[in-house]
Amino acid sequence: MFVVEDLFEIAQRGLIIAPGVDLGARAQVELLVELRRPDGGVLRATARAQVPFGSGRGQPRHMLCFKALSKRDIPLGTEVWLLGEAGAEDAP
Question: Which domains does the chain have, with CATH numbers?
Answer without folding.
Answer: 2-85 (2.40.30)
